């Protein structure tokens, strides 16, 4: 009998949204958007000169110099990836797990995807040896590997890939003639930026890497869709840029003018934007670390979160207790935890992990407060974990996991 997902969860092909910040919109951004909405003007495909200049400046401040002619803007990262996949053609290699929207965007173009395991220490980048093996197997079966997607700061695992892991994977991909698309949506949400080294593949191979960043990661609310792409500063990169613009134009993938104005303002990184981002990252890091302690305390597994506003947990050690509750796979785990925690907790199957694995992405946004006042209080508090609403939310979060731990311990045979 075919199992259906609860209303609002959707079948697996419908990707869950990226983790939300759980904070009110920055007033300065809202003011820029509102002011632009009062003017009658239309943005152009690929972004106006002002917006592309802002994007170029953003990349340059991160060690990736370029001109506006090397950039493009779209209403979200998915249209950019769809256009890149359509233009480059061929089969696409993905790390497993990977962002939930990658596979649907690729498959819309009719191209095949192949998942490659990640190394034990991080997500976001395929293990280089597994990548080589997969590419050669696909070729032997008549496929045409053409593109590798990776993300050094990762959704869903919330890890940051060590530079040596990125370097080895990039070297393997280029040796097999793959073009690399680096999704750097979460690069500005690294929890310990002074202690964590994040290297963009474009720093290692600037002529073979296209960089994409959805501004919903560190700059704009998720429902103000805007994303930027940086193309190689080569003749091949210029041709790729032009063909991607053709696809975006054909799709009508144009950023709404008010959102474009807010994006240009945010990418210029005035003090208000950088101060809010810094405070938000600090808050998300503190709460994510507390959630990680709760997960580990309950006997489940999770890598320490290093970026983003989420963590990726493996409840495999609690399988017996979950089985007694009718949970045997990631889809049932999603339903169970979403119901028990009162939040949407997408299972690992959404991110390309095996359905039988009991993995789940957990967002920290619901732990920050249920009203704008509580959320702002969390943002500005010196000790946010001591706020009553945060403490209460973390307690309920931990209790749901501790119930499973206690049940699992009761089911263990006596020694």
From TrEMBL:
GO terms for molecular function: transaminase activity. The keyword Transferase applies. Gene3D superfamilies: Aspartate Aminotransferase, domain 1, Type I PLP-dependent aspartate aminotransferase-like (Major domain). The keyword Transferase applies. InterPro entries: Aminotransferase_I/II_large (IPR004839), AspAT/PAT-like (IPR050596), PyrdxlP-dep_Trfase (IPR015424), PyrdxlP-dep_Trfase_major (IPR015421), PyrdxlP-dep_Trfase_small (IPR015422). Its cofactor is pyridoxal 5'-phosphate. Keywords: Aminotransferase, Pyridoxal phosphate, Transferase. Residues 35-204 form the Aminotransferase class I/classII large domain. PANTHER family: ASPARTATE AMINOTRANSFERASE. Belongs to the class-I pyridoxal-phosphate-dependent aminotransferase family. This is Aminotransferase class I/II-fold pyridoxal phosphate-dependent enzyme. It comes from Streptomyces monticola.
